[in-house]
From TrEMBL:
The keyword NADP does not apply. The chain crosses the membrane at residues 12-32, 100-121. It is found in: Cell membrane. It comes from SAR92 bacterium BACL26 MAG-121220-bin70. It is a multi-pass membrane protein. This is ATP synthase I.
Amino acid sequence: MKTIPRPPVLKVSLIQLLVLLALTCGALWFSLNAALSVLLGGLCQVFPQAWFTSQAFKYAGAHQADKVLSSMYRGEAGKVLLTASGCIATFVLFDKVNIIGFMVVFVTMIPLQLVLVARALK
């Protein structure tokens, strides 16, 4: 019996990090503060999503359905905690956050991730 192959989810996170690096370099044109805000905004979305993805695809198959479900719950809880703690740490530890840059990149990474996953699953 053959199992369903795992999707290339690591590749999605790596592409997101490359796009984030390009956006950060582009923000350097404005200021170092803007570039750091862009980087932190992207990391607050990319790393928690990568955590969830790694947990969600840890197990596969009907025989491991209970492990799949508990792993997805654990991944979602970790994703929420990592996102919240990343945002809190950014705003507490970084005095001059460019909120617009932070939020634009944070929100931009979400549809980018959806598009990349859709392409990876084709």
